[in-house]
């Protein structure tokens, strides 16, 4: 099964980081392509996108300052199918991508994604203010709930957490306008 290409660039506000692509995403070549995944709806309902996008438009979000990558590139049915070796290599590759592209925010789509990357056990939703230091200097770390349809948290609660990220990006954008 094919890997899903990253959508990364310099000057992004947010890079969304998932565990790895689903088989459906691997087949279609686009991020969050499983129809049971709520990612695109969450982005729109939280205000992060001006309209509801579909997975085939994932590359278009670069124009909005939003990028995509995963800690592991290989599509699997679930995160439990990812090996320790893949996580180790993925951590190193992800850190290199964040150091190269330096987004304002690295948004980890799921607590498990962040704990695998950071090796930290204490994780709350939102910005990781309690973390002693960001793992990549100058890149703020934000942990959001997984958008998988398997998540038990009510969708409105998930959207509310993503709205914190929207509020931050709005505050950043308005600050840039005033300069």
From TrEMBL:
Organism: Paenibacillus monticola
GO molecular function, one term: pyrimidine-specific mismatch base pair DNA N-glycosylase activity
Protein name: Mismatch-specific DNA-glycosylase
One GO process term, biological-process aspect: base-excision repair, AP site formation
Keyword DNA damage on entry: yes
Keyword Zinc part of the UniProt annotation: no
Uracil-DNA glycosylase-like domain segment(s): 5-159
Gene3D superfamilies according to UniProt: Uracil-DNA glycosylase-like domain
Keywords noted in UniProt: DNA damage, DNA repair, Hydrolase
InterPro entries the UniProt entry points to: MUG/TDG, Uracil-DNA_glycosylase-like, Uracil-DNA_glycosylase-like_sf
SMART domains xref list: UDG (SM00986), UreE_C (SM00987)
Pfam family, one: UDG
Taxonomic superkingdom: Bacteria
